[in-house]
């Protein structure tokens, strides 16, 4: 039996050969009532078909791939899950527990998520109240498709209850039946109005106001980032953001058609929102690498045009035309390994990755440092080891993620930010659990 820890990912074929599984979820809390549910979501983490929300009031998906079995074998609820029967639109199953009534997740004695095949337990993830605060729900685990079916032991607290979870995944609770209007109360004499509380402008609102003044064309990006951060419950987290931009010869068209500037705009907004100094540390790399001035609200307009000067056959003079990732990665590790705050490195490449052993060694060696690597492929191919990051063993925590975008013009900003920030919350939790972050 495989014991999973919080934040751990694993391929299902590592411990089971079947796609027809039983999922058991248990949770204990004195005097508390719990609801267990499963969300079948699409590639954008949206419940685009509410028939794949399986819970006490809808116990099966249309074709029977997801079935709620009830309480048995020591589990509060069990699900029968046949991954082979799920439609191709369902890319992830999210298993959650919500509190119905009084109580918060910090008060639970404990809980578990387990995977069974033929009645035998194949994998298990345990969690406890000490992992949570005042949340009313917990996203326990995910089973998702990425080449093969995989599991993520998440254990992420969620502030709202079932309605908020539904909203988080794009669903909506059915309206309650209308009840007769209450009898109007007898009029009461007017009372003096209490003083209005002081307005608390959060980081997102403050940034919106600044952007409206200096770069109004980016306001919609700020609003979108704010929504994603709230959804992922990291709106108040401070993170240092670093961008590494591919300047190899094959990126020429991406520089010429505005794709690179569009990336700078979007990563810059993320940095201004997450980092207290409102600046995006910026590097360009090819055979060599070079740091350029930070992207700020004052410099973001035409940043690429103003800071990237080419030479014969070179996008960036002095950097060459090839791609050599390990040196810039080592530079960033040395620069940020002792950071007192988390560091998010957004690493843009168009592929041609071939230094597999060196990149693998760097990611393993720096997994105990406060650095998370978000690799993004843009209009490229041959991403090599980056496409296998979920399977990379020998790390203290999972400290890297990758996704590819064929054309930025064909993906919404909401989808881009969702994917860019998708694994950051899980890493933040895992890094804190391991003592990497305070």
From TrEMBL:
Biased composition (Pro residues): 178-192
CDD domains for this protein: TerD_like
Residue ranges annotated for the VWFA domain, each copy included: 240-420
InterPro entries in the cross-refs: Stress/Tellurium_Resist, TerD, vWA_TerF_C, VWF_A, vWFA_dom_sf
Pfam families assigned to the protein according to its UniProt record, in alphabetical order: TerD (PF02342), vWA-TerF-like (PF10138)
PROSITE patterns from the UniProt entry: VWFA
Signal peptide: none
Location of region: Disordered: 171-197
PANTHER family: CAMP-BINDING PROTEIN 1-RELATED, TELLURITE RESISTANCE PROTEIN
Protein name per its UniProtKB record: Tellurium resistance protein
Organism: Deinococcus cellulosilyticus (strain DSM 18568 / NBRC 106333 / KACC 11606 / 5516J-15)
Lineage: Bacteria, Thermotogati, Deinococcota, Deinococci, Deinococcales
């Amino acid at each position: 039996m495989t014991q999973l820890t919080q934040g751990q990912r694993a391929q299902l074929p590592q411990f089971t050969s079947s796609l027809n599984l039983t999922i058991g979820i248990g949770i204990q809390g004195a005097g508390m009532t719990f609801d267990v549910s499963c969300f079948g979501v699409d590639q954008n983490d949206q419940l685009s078909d509410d028939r794949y929300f399986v819970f006490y009031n809808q116990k099966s998906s249309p074709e029977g791939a997801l079935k709620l079995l009830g309480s048995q074998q020591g589990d509060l609820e069990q699900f029968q899950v046949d991954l082979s029967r799920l439609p191709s639109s369902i890319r992830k199953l999210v298993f959650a527990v919500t509190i119905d009534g009084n109580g918060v997740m910090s008060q639970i004695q404990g809980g578990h998520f387990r995977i069974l095949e033929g009645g035998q337990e194949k994998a298990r993830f345990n969690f406890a109240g000490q992992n949570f605060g005042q949340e009313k729900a917990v996203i326990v685990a995910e089973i998702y498709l990425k080449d093969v079916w995989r599991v993520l032991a998440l254990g992420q607290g969620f502030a709202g209850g079932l309605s908020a979870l539904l909203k988080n995944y794009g669903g909506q609770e059915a309206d309650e039946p209308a009840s007769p209007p209450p009898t109007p109360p007898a009029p009461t004499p007017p009372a003096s109005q209490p003083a209005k509380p002081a307005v608390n402008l959060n980081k997102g609102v403050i940034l919106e106001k600044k952007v409206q003044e200096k770069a109004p064309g980016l306001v919609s990006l700020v609003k979108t980032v704010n929504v994603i951060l709230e959804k992922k419950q990291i709106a108040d987290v401070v993170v240092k953001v670093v961008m590494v931009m591919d300047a190899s010869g094959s990126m020429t068209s991406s520089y010429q058609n505005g794709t690179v500037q569009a990336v700078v705009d979007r990563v810059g907004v993320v940095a201004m929102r997450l980092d207290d100094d409102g600046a995006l540390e910026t590097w360009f790399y090819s055979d060599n690498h070079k740091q350029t001035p930070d992207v700020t609200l004052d410099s973001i307009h035409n940043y690429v045009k103003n800071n990237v000067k080419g030479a014969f056959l070179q996008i960036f003079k002095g950097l060459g035309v090839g791609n050599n990732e390990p040196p810039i990665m080592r530079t960033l590790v040395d620069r940020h390994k002792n950071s007192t705050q988390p560091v998010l490195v957004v690493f843009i490449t168009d592929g041609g990755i071939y230094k597999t052993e060196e990149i693998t060694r760097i990611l393993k060696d720096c997994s105990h440092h406060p650095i998370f690597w978000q690799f993004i492929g843009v209009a490229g191919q041959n991403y090599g080891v980056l496409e296998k990051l979920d399977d990379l063993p020998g790390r203290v925590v999972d400290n890297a993620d990758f996704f590819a975008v064929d054309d930025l013009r064909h993906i919404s900003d909401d989808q881009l930010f969702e994917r860019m920030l998708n694994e950051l919350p899980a890493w933040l939790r895992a890094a804190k659990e391991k003592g990497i972050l305070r």
